[in-house]
Amino acid sequence: MEHQDTRMEWSTGATGATLSNVPAGSYSVTISDSRGCTFVLPVEIGGTAVPNVDAGADAQITCLNNGQVVLDGSSSTPGVTFSWSGPGIVSGGSTEDVTVDEQGTYTLTVTNPQTGCSSTDAASVTVNNTLPGATATGGTLTCTTTSIMLTGSGNGSFSWTGPNNFTSQDQNPTVSVAGTYVLTVTGANGCTSTDNAEVILDDEAPGATATGGTLTCTTTSVMLTGSGNGSFSWTGPNNFTSQDQNPTVSVAGTYVLTVTGSNGCTSTDNAEVILDDEAPGATATGGTLTCTTTSIMLTGSGNGSFSWTGPNNFTSQEQNPTVSVAGTYVLTVTGANGCTSTDNAEVISMMKLPVQLQPVVRSLAPPRALCSPAAATVPSPGPVPTTSPARTRTRPCRLLEPMCSP
Question: Which of 15, 125, 192, 401 is the most buried (most CB within 10 A)?
Answer without folding.
Answer: 125
